[in-house]
Amino acid sequence: MTNSPMPRWKVFLSQYLRWSSTVTQAFALSIITFCVIFPLCCHRLLYSYYFIKSMYLDSMSEVVLRESLDRGQEALHFWQSSSTAATSRFNNFTQHPELLVTVVTARRKEARDYHYLLQVMLQLSNIVGSCGEQKCAEVLVCDVESGPQENQDAKVLESHFRVVRRSPQEQQSIQERINTFEKEKRDYVFCLRRGWELVKPKNIVVLEDDALPRNDFFIVIKDLLSRRFALHTLYIKLYHPERLQRYWNPEPYRILEWVGLGLVGATALLLSFPYWNPCSFSFTLSATHLLFFTLYFMTAAELLGRHYLLEVRRISPQLYAVSPATECCTPAMLFPGNASLRVAEYLDSSFCYKGHAKDIVLYQMARTVPGQRSHSVEPNLISHIGAYSSVRANPSRPKLL
Ligand SMILES: CC(=O)N[C@H]1[C@@H](OP(=O)(O)OP(=O)(O)OC[C@H]2O[C@@H](n3ccc(=O)[nH]c3=O)[C@H](O)[C@@H]2O)O[C@H](CO)[C@H](O)[C@@H]1O
């Protein structure tokens, strides 16, 4: 009896589905990584593609709101009970400091109990001594509230920090009916200029009142200012929203970083296989295998979340990455030299409205005015604690995403 020949598709499958076939190995590795290991490890990571929103978002948002509320109440207690003598060093300004930190603050109706400003000032007072013998910076509170009700948090801080406000004449210029975003921009310009006039600092950081500095804030800024690029930049963004940090966002330098990461990971893995190969993979350093592992690492990095990879850079201030500025948001901005004056002038000549707020104007300025460059630093130097916006409508219980 003669054996009938195996159909061609069976021959094809049996060849490719043998474990010794690299196609089978690549397929199995991808399935195990992306469909088993990653979903198990990353389903609670907020900025990962595997995050299960329906299961965790509400509870995580509630925890963050509760923690912020507690921190706010602690900060209120701290500032109300601490003596003026203990904080007098913040009130004694030196002229021409290396760095001035101006905190722009307005009354926050909806988030009154969270005391964002008090939280930020408590953290600043804790870390401002982290630069050795000297203070890292002078700190100024710029209260832009012009309504009939006062900014109570700024009032609490008056005996501890220098708090500047518009004069009654200046108040009048802001009383006319302007939209919220134009008002926000004018407030920012006022604070930029007032900080400069007061102490003529060598560099200025402007923080919004919901930008909580991280512990290494001043150390990283010192390192940034010592780098050559800082001399020629209009501003350096110290924060970009975590949800926009993905590779799959249209930022050209990120694509380069992404491909670079894939190539380095793939090369290292293929070179190390002869010494470490628990599953007897038959991959070698060939062009096809290099391409597969480059794509494998790129996919892994994106699905895990670029945000978590950036966190590794916190090991040292020198590892913080500087790249061309991204578009959104201005909660923490470093203006080296007298760049703050140029920015104030430019903002002054622009008009803001919904969809064209001051962050967009600044981004356009750096792109369109010849000779002006702007940068972003990653990972973030501040945490954005402002769950409730003071310029936009808020949901009753804001969510993290
Ligand atoms: C985390 C984030 O994405 N924040 C951005 C978002 O702010 P948000 O929508 O989060 O608004 P917000 O409440 O953080 O206010 C931004 C800043 O404006 C100040 N303020 C508010 C009201 C006012 O009349 N005058 C005034 O100066 C306020 O004290 C704060 O320092 O959009 C703004 C532009 O619109 C900026 O780009 C913010 O960086």
UniProtKB/TrEMBL annotation:
Protein's GO biological process: GPI anchor biosynthetic process
Transmembrane segments: 26-47, 255-276, 282-304
Record keywords, A-Z: Membrane, Transmembrane, Transmembrane helix
CDD domains reported for this sequence: PGAP4
GO cellular component: Golgi membrane
GO MF entries: glycosyltransferase activity
The protein, known as: Post-GPI attachment to proteins GalNAc transferase 4
